[in-house]
Amino acid sequence: MKSVTFRITKTIVLFGVIVLTGNTLCEAQVTIGLDAEPLKGALLQLKEQDEVNGELPNASKGLSFPRVALSVRNRLYPMFGSVSTPSNDYDSPGEIQAVNKEHAGMMVYNTYESALGETNPDLIFRKGFYAWTGDRWENLQIEATNALLLSNGTIRLGGALTQSQTTISVNAASQDLKIDVANNSTNATHGFFIDGLETQANSRAVVADVNTGKLGVAPVIPAMMAFFQSGTETGSIGTSINTGNPYVVPWEAADQITNNLVNFDSTEDSFELNEDGIVEISGMVNYRGGVGTSNTTIVINATLQLKKFNTSTWMDFSSVRGVYVGEVNAYRNTLNIPPALVQGQTGDKIRLILRRPPNSPSGYLGSDHTNDADAGIVVPYGTQFSKSIKIVAL
Question: What is the mean pLDDT, run by run of 10 residues, along the chain of 394 residues?
């Protein structure tokens, strides 16, 4: 093949040479910038000095590509008009197909950047180099459907860059590093994790505050648990107990000892689970129901009840029965409800009740309970608490 070399400093001279050389130039290899032969495998080479080593620089300037504002991934706009006004030779399916194919390999620097919320893949553009493949513009930079993007000082990651992404940002005032994990209301399965970490001998658990989202370290991972405990006495409840209806054990927000598992509902003295999973439930209540006469027997059930999310019925779940005969019924007796497991769901509610059990075929077991002010839910002598409830996620 014939080799032709040029040293050209003015664009107009280059065009003049092209016109004068005609067919000869069309079949030649060309060097621009230096009076030297191009590389054997190059049709056109730009350089200012010969290469002694192929890895060393051979120029101090670069090639400036045309800067074009692209608009549609599968059309040659603005080269052939626009979406609303295509050129006459690019306005029919046959013409578009033919023109698209013959322009394969064309490269431009795109100056248009689509909005971050754009979801149509044919309208998504980022600034940078694009090549025409014969049917669409392809970004020569890394593009991925699961990617990183720096936008207005925030790193976005995970999912298509046009969709809701996890964001990493730094609070300018507190210098806190914040990670917002992308999520949606129908499939809350997204998360943030680090895989492949080594076990450390002098280690602490990384924990997160469920209210603030802040990360910290702890000697042990705290249990997901709600524990309420009270020393408050509630007397004069015998009349209510004698009806056989459930008496809901009352609680106050101040009774909370620890809680990262439930929402306390003071209007119905219940505890609402704030996440799904297996939970263990147990409780305790101290009760005095009689006055200690020899011919009376007090019978009482302490029961943990469960109401499933979006239902209205309370179901007995775990229970204990106390039977106190004669003088014992005047004592302040402890009813320990054994632990039981349940497959919990966010929104399920739990409560503790007292109830006089029914007798068959009618009436109720035992004698009537006293309505004295110092009877009911009480604090036994030598102790501090009248009731407690524990809910633990397993």
Answer: 42 44 58 89 90 80 95 96 94 94 95 88 92 94 58 57 59 68 48 63 73 75 89 96 97 96 96 95 96 92 97 95 94 96 96 96 94 96 95 94
Q: Are 232 and 355 in the same domain?
A: yes
Q: Domain boundary residue among 122, 139, 156?
A: 139
- The Cα 76–Cα 83 span in angstroms is 10
For residue 205, being part of any structural domain is answered with: no
Do 185 and 245 fall into the same domain? no
Judgement on whether residues 264 and 248 belong to the same structural domain of the protein: yes
Q: Tell me which residue of 7, 10, 5 sits closest to 25, measured CA to CA.
A: 5
* 17, 117: one domain: no
Cα 339-341-345 angle, rounded to 5 deg: 130
Nearest to 326 by CA among 364, 286, 297: 297
Q: CA torsion angle for 51, 56, 61, 66 (degrees, to 10)?
A: 90
Q: Which domain holds residue 159?
A: 146-192
CB atoms within 10 A of CB 213: 12
Residue 260: both structure tokens together: 């990262």
Count of the separate structural domains present in the chain: 4
The amino acid that residue 378 corresponds to is: V
Length of the chain as a residue count:
394
Q: What six digits make up the tokens of 23?
A: 């067919």
Q: Does 281 lie in the same domain as 179?
A: no
Cα–Cα distance for residue pair 200/193, rounded to 1 Å: 17
User: What token pair was written down for 151?
Assistant: 């936008």
Same domain, 33 and 176: no
Please choose, from the candidates 238, 214, 259, 187, the residue with its C-alpha nearest in 3D space to the C-alpha of residue 355.
Answer: 238
- Residue 164 and residue 274 share a domain: no
